[in-house]
Amino acid sequence: RALRGAGLTMISFGGSNLLRLVSNLILTRLLFPEVFGLMALVQIFITGLQMFSDIGINASIIQSKRGDDPDFLNTAWTLTIIRGILLWLAACALAPLAAYIYDEPLLLALIPVVGLNAFIRGFATTKIVVQNRHLQLGFQTALALGAQAFGIALATLLAWWLQSVWALVFGTLLTTACHVALMHFIIPGENNRLKFEKEAFWEIIGFGKFILLSTLAAFLI
Question: What is the pTM of this model?
């Protein structure tokens, strides 16, 4: 199982990078360099927010003895949704500062809209984490690569039509929404529901504080 999981991880990593290369080759022919510069600035702020709020929820599920317990999983899912909402609100609050620092008014709109990506990802099912826990990676590898290929096709179409940075933004949001929806409906397992269990919450926070310190250091470095 470990060998199969390692092989699928290599396929996923290699396939994802190959698709990203194809995407870049296509999109750089359709869009101006300034578009990619703007998106790079936006991603710096969004990635920073994500790393400054990473409490290792998925890692907590994988390592916990309760990693298959519905109450634990639903508490983790609830926390993930709350984190996604807070990330989006933080992106909205940070946008005016970013626009001022870089003297780029377009960031005032770009950062909150791109921040919706974190909001959408907050609703991703824990079923995919449970599959990771049991090294059942085949289904999610195919799903992730399929969603990425769909996103490339969509971004290409939008770039040809809009000829602006919004092609990348809307392409990313629609791809994420599609991926999250497919995870809920296609991956086998019990569907999540909102739940808060105090014991599960403190176990996740107790484990996640070390991951938070790690990601803070990584971002600063």
Answer: 0.89
